[in-house]
Amino acid sequence: MGEALSNLEIARGAKLLPIEEVGRSMGLREERHLEPYGRHVAKVDLCAIEDLSERPKAKYILVSAITPTPLGEGKTTTTVGLGQAFSHIGKRATIAIRQASMGPAFGIKGGAAGGGYSQVVPMERLNLHLTGDLHAVTEAHNMLAAMIDNHLYHGNGLGIEPHSISWRRVMDVNDRSLRNIVIGLGARTDGVPRQSGFDITAASEVMAILALASSLEDLRERLGRIVIGHDREGNPVSAEDVRGAGAMAVILKEAIKPNLMQTLEGTPALVHAGPFGNIATGNSSVVADLIGIRTADYLITEAGFGADMGAERFFNIKCRISGLEPDAAVVVATVRALKAHSGRYRIKAGAPLPEELLEENPQDVLAGAENLKKQIENIKLHGVPAVVAINAFPTDHPSEHKAIEEAAKEVGARCAVCRHFTEGGKGAVELARALEETIEENERERRRGGGGSFRFLYPLEMPLKQKIETIAREVYGAEGVEYDAEALRALEGFERAGFGRLPVCLAKTHLSLSSDPALKGAPRGWKLSVREVRASVGAGFIYPICGQMRTMPGLSAHPAAERIDLDGEGNVVGLF
After folding, report:
1. What CA–CA distance (Å, rounded) separates 508 from 81?
2. Which residues pair with residue 225 across a beta bridge?
């Protein structure tokens, strides 16, 4: 038996359709809607939103997950495999996923195109630059930073308090040495010295704005609302005030157009925007979904991390802006992650799995299944039916899959074993059928006056503190919230400034339902600690910070960058 092919080898062996043919299958016209970037990638003009508006809407499916291990549990692979699976049952699907950040690709995480026989291709293009959107975000963000420091240098007419400036610089590289720096050193003409730093591009508010803007006009307005700091009287200073928003919009004019690609089986894939999953929405773009919802029978999108994070933000932030309502959600689970939630194992990124983790032990799966049940509950809190996708690994045992099915059944969720990594679309047919049946059943129940109807967790009129406490209690399972004095002052200031009607996006660890990464399963009896609160006014949300958030990753002792290279024929090697 030969050695298994790598993701890159599988992707490179695929026979791709011309991108124009992929577009035609969605109802997109080459001459009006598509702007080709080579043979297999195209930008989609936003006029498609209006042009397709009379077509029927697709069923809208969110792919979320249990609380993941540091290795991730395969949401993107499941999204791709599910999109491919629908064609095996005579249905058409379009998928919408986030763009890859090159920092993690050259670090530990590897690529973000899916895996095995459920990938978006060309895999190298997706992971390395694609159409340059992340570079445009980087440039727009740093243009504003330059405008701020230029304003200080030329007299500071707005009276900006330099210590209040929160707008740092960004780059799409993992570089811990740039987290905290001093700028403006040297001669007087080299600028005004002050402390600053770098974040990774995915953590930029500009990236969150790109993901949430519903049009070019909306993008321009949101950029103008970015708050970069305060004046000496404590009033917020915006990007519009320093006259930087117009240039930013020009830089992002092409980046707001979604990128069209395809899966290994020719399923259309809209790949657009990649906001950080800890401090932002962690979802792909609104405009991609507004286009995709009119192009197939099913539109499948993915939200970052577990259902307590990406899905909650998808429901309460993204869906408010798009106006789209999901018909069902997938909760991806793996045997290894549920065993980890028993608290008996430790999984570390870049390290081999503990040998005992791979031994047959359905009791450990059941011990960690409280996390699965709570994440299903988090989906149902929003009136959305959930289906569990067991992302199967060769080291799993049938008894362990049965344990997951029993846990899902206890909270009223269907379950499907998926082998899309090794089998492609046919390996996720069971999941596609389960979703089809779940959506039809829910619609029948609604017509009878029962069933679930999509709902937000809180109204926008609710005060910010109450929104935070609602999420902490209902979604995370906390018994209360504790605020540092600085956080309380910030909340009061945001209410006074008129930002109280914004939704909230709690920044916390993705490795636990709680704010403590060491707490596994579905912890109870703990309190959420809010140490700081910031405003992403341009993106349109307030983000309370719970614990330490790293917005500039570092490289490991042996990052993927050591293995990535070109061979003698100019082909990329070493990219996972």
Report:
1. 29
2. none
User: Rounded to an integer, what is the distance from CA 166 to the centroid of its chain?
Assistant: 23
Q: DSSP secondary structure string, 25-79?
A: HTT--HHHHEEESSSS-EEE-THHHHHTTTSPPPEEEEEEESSPPTT---HHHHH
Pairing assessment for the beta strands 93-97 and 298-302 based on DSSP bridges? parallel
Other CB atoms within a 10 A radius of the CB of residue 182 amount to 10
In angstroms, the CA 91 to CA 426 distance is 13
> Does domain 133-251 correspond to CATH entry 3.30.1510.10?
yes
Alpha helices in 171-257 (DSSP H): 205-212, 216-225, 245-251
CATH topology of domain 7-132+255-447: Rossmann fold (3.40.50)
pLDDT digits (tens, 9 = 90+) for 510-547: 999 999 999 999 999 999 999 999 999 999 999 999 98
- CATH number among 3.60.21.10, 3.10.410.10, 3.30.420.40, 3.30.300.30, domain 464-545: 3.10.410.10
> Is there a common fold for 7-132+255-447 and 133-251?
no
Q: Which of 170, 176, 129 is nearest to 146 (CA)?
A: 170
Tokens describing residue 75: 């949401």
Residue whose C-alpha is closest to residue 524's, from 467, 477, 468: 477
Q: What is the DSSP letter of 173?
A: S
The b-or-e profile of 100-132 (16+ CB within 10 A means b, else e) is bbbbbbbbbbbbbbbbbbbbbbbbbbbbbebbe
466-509 pLDDT tens trace: 999 999 999 999 999 999 999 999 999 999 999 999 999 999 99
pTM over 0.90: yes
435-476 tens-digit pLDDT: 999 999 999 988 888 767 999 999 999 999 999 999 999 999
Domain borders along the chain are 7-132+255-447, 133-251, 464-545
- pLDDT of residue 213 exceeding 80, the answer is yes
Are β-strands 328-333 and 59-65 bridged in parallel, bridged antiparallel, or unpaired? parallel
Amino acid type, 411: V
